[in-house]
TrEMBL record:
Domain 6-phosphogluconate dehydrogenase NADP-binding span(s) in chain numbering: 2-155
Keyword terms: Oxidoreductase
GO molecular function: 2-hydroxy-3-oxopropionate reductase activity; NADP binding
Protein name: 2-hydroxy-3-oxopropionate reductase
C-alpha cells in the first residue's frame, strides 16, 4: 500500500513520521520542502509537486485551511490524476461547505473521501495518541482504520457524510473556547473577592476541567 502525505507542519510532520516508522512506504509533499527533509532522511520519498502524489493508494492531507486544501488537492490537478479506487483522508479542520464540495468532487473522480479531523496538539500527534473524528463511507473507514490506529488512540465515527466529522470538530472547538471563556469569567469573579485567580484556575484544571487542551491553555 503506497501512502502519500501533504502538509508537514507541526501536526502533519509528526503524523507522517509515525506512518513511516510503522513501515508504510511514504511519499510526502510540503510547500516548503525543507520541512520534509527529516522524513526524507528517515526513508520517505519527496514529491516535487502535489500532483506527484497521484499514484498513491491512500492520500493523507493536513493543511492549514480551506484555501490551502483546495489549492493542493483540486487546483493542482492532484485529484483529477488520482486512480479510481484510491482514497483521500483529510485530517484538517475545514468548513462544512468545502467538505461537501470535496465529497462531490471525489465521487465524480471515483476516489474515496474520508473526513478525519483530530483532537490533540503536536506532542499528542507525535505520541500517536490523537483522537480522530471520522465520517464517510464505512467501508472506506474500515479500509484505512489500520493507518488511523497508527496515528491515534481512538477513532470516533460520526456518520457517513464527511462533513459530519467537520461539524463535530467545529463544535468541539466552540465548546473548548466557551469553557475557557467561562473559566476566565469565574477567575475575575473570585479575584473581586480577594481570592487568587491562579489558585482558582489550578483547582479547576485539577478537577472539573482537567482535560489536557484546557490545562495547556490556561496554565
Amino acid at each position: 500500500m503506497k501512502i502519500g502525505f501533504a502538509g508537514l507542519g507541526g501536526m502533519g510532520r509528526a503524523m507522517a513520521h509515525n506512518l513511516l516508522q510503522a513501515g508504510y512506504p511514504l511519499t510526502v509533499w510540503n510547500r516548503s520542502p525543507q520541512a520534509a527533509q527529516p522524513l526524507v532522511d528517515a526513508g520517505a520519498q519527496l514529491a516535487a509537486q502535489p500532483a506527484d502524489l497521484a499514484g498513491v493508494d491512500i492520500l493523507f492531507t493536513m493543511l492549514a485551511n480551506d484555501a490551502a486544501l483546495e489549492q493542493v488537492v483540486v487546483t493542482s490537478g492532484l485529484l483529477a490524476q488520482m486512480q479510481p479506487g484510491a482514497a483521500h483522508v483529510n485530517m484538517a479542520t475545514i468548513s462544512v461547505a468545502l467538505a461537501q464540495r470535496l465529497a462531490a468532487l471525489h465521487q465524480q473522480h471515483g476516489v474515496g473521501y474520508l473526513a478525519a479531523p483530530v483532537l490533540g496538539r503536536p506532542d499528542v500527534a507525535a505520541a500517536g495518541r490523537l483522537n480522530i473524528l471520522a465520517a464517510g463511507d464505512p467501508a472506506l473507514l474500515a479500509r484505512v482504520q489500520p493507518l488511523l490506529d497508527v496515528l491515534g488512540q481512538r477513532t470516533w465515527s460520526f456518520g457517513e457524510r464527511p462533513e459530519q466529522a467537520n461539524i463535530v470538530k467545529i463544535a468541539a472547538n466552540f465548546t473548548l473556547a466557551s469553557a475557557i471563556e467561562a473559566m476566565a469569567e469565574g477567575s475575575a469573579l473570585v479575584r473581586n473577592h480577594g481570592v487568587s485567580g491562579a489558585d482558582y484556575l489550578q483547582m479547576l484544571t485539577g478537577t472539573l476541567f482537567a482535560a489536557p487542551p484546557i490545562r495547556a491553555t490556561v496554565r
